[in-house]
Amino acid sequence: MAKPVALQFAAPKRGLPPKHFADLTQEERIAALAELGLPKFRVDQIARHYYARYEADPLTMTDLPAAQREKVKDALFPTLMTPVRSIETDNGETRKTLWKLHDGTLLESVLMRYPDRATLCISSQAGCGMACPFCATGQGGLDRNLSTGEIVDQVRAAAATMHAEGRRLSNVVFMGMGEPLANYKRVVSAVRQITQPAPRGFGLSQRNVTVSTVGLAPAIRRLADEDLSVTLAVSLHTPDDELRDTLVPVNNRWSVSEVLEAAHYYAERSGRRVSVEYALIRDINDHPWRADLLGRKLHRALGPLAHVNLIPLNPTPGSKWDASPKERQDEFVRRVAAQGVTCTVRDTRGQEIAAACGQLAAEDRAAS
User: Which positions are catalytic residues (predicted)?
Assistant: First the structure.
């Protein structure tokens, strides 16, 4: 029996981020503008600047009364994130950005351009409390939850970058720092803003948004009842409880069978295929019998609505965890597929720029 690991579901208390336009409901926005002496119709006007033109500075919103722009900026558009550094790879197609928040907290996002799409990997927490030992973020612990505005503004910044290039941001994945379902309300609010059409949101298809989780079973069921059609990604990493108790300590609370039952409920409610994330780690979880067991369990729990996304591990410098050899990876894929479950290998981007979540922040903390 693995020794229980202390998990952090509640973020440590730190200074709250300043209130931002993206944090407010429509009614709250109307009330906030009324306090500034602005009529109701200005709300949608400002929202179109933010969600359709990706502008976050009211001083550039020339259709607002000049005398009011500074007031709107001070009240509703504080600077949430300041870029610390960005690094690129894949001939400039992959860019990782380290951001500093108002309280000095660090977070990361990764923009990946492909011929047919542009995908942004965003963070939902600063740090992570799930304590997975092979993950740089998990080993750093949880700093705090991100506000809705801090989540949404990562998307706006990337959408602005793509717009300047004459392209469109098409996909968003909650696979950066943090456990999205441990910051549930803010993540769901952000998802709605990402997917609603302007002036309520950026207008991405819900089917192009992926929300990942290490397996918070009750929250998976709750998400299923939101009537969203986003993709659920479950970071399983092994099909057996004995090893998963160590690799994904939250398994001590919700077992593999409970997680798969919740995933089945999500698939049933949404009609969407569930992506099962599996970081393949040399001599730890890459055994042939585990591939067979994984395929059998997924076939039984999810049938054709299961898809295994095999991830070659991006090792943290100095870590004992390493990626599996390619021949073992290929055998793993073959065995899972032989059980009737689709299995593909993720296209790894940005390994040389520490693109796995938490690595760049960890490097920056170590250097400071």
Answer: 108 (proton acceptor), 357 (s-methylcysteine intermediate)
